[in-house]
Amino acid sequence: MLTAEQLLAAQKANVETLFDLTGKAFEGVEKLVELNLQVAKASMTEAAETTKAALSVKDAQELMSLQAGLLQPAAEKAAAYSRHLYDIVAATNAEVVKLAESQVADAQKSFTGLVDSAVKNAPAGTENAVALVKSAMAAANNAYESVHKAAKQAAEVAEANFQAVTAQAVKTTQTATKSRRAA
């Protein structure tokens, strides 16, 4: 049975975890805001430069050349922004997952300790019930590990797909830009 001190310690640990998770989430949001401010500043500067260049164009050929020259850098910047955004989200997620895994491990240790304590104090003749509880705990731990591995693999596949799509988008834009310049 849990004592008042154990309940209080568990509640304190839960509150600390909540604040840690909240802190990690705010750090991620802060990074996203910083990234978006940098992009907004750069975009304003580039818009001013592009406008000046467009106003100084003397003929249609020069305008077409200017447009073609802007397409590739814009796609590369969009891809870079996406990569930065993904990196921030992935890093924040990794920190939250790490903290959650730590909490799950601690909870498993505590629960195992409670079960072991109960087993030691179990009356004679309850061996079957004890074996059933231990078996259920092992099955739950195995299920958790399987789900955790599957989620990790899914995240790795998603990251690889994201990187491939981004690289292909930049490559396609580069090819299109080269084709326009040649035409």
Round the mean pLDDT to the nearest integer and report it: 82
Low-pLDDT runs: none
Radius of gyration: 28 Å
Number of helices: 3
Structural class: mainly alpha
Q: Could you give a short account of the major beta sheet? A: none
Give the terminus-to-terminus CA distance: 81 Å
Number of strands: 0
**Topology as a string of helices (H) and strands (E):** HHH
Helix content: over 70%
What general outline do the C-alpha atoms trace? elongated
Strand content: under 5%
The quaternary structure here is: single chain
Structure description:
The protein has 183 residues and is mostly helical. It is 92% helix and 0% strand. The protein has three helices and no strands. It is elongated and about 100 Å long. The mean pLDDT is 82.
Main features:
183 residues; 3 helices; elongated; Phasin family protein; Phasin_subfam-1
What is the topological layout?
Blueprint: H1 4-55, H2 60-120, H3 127-182
Protein name: Phasin family protein
Pfam families: Phasin_2
Domain Phasin: 5-104
Short structural description:
The chain has about 180 residues and is mostly helical.
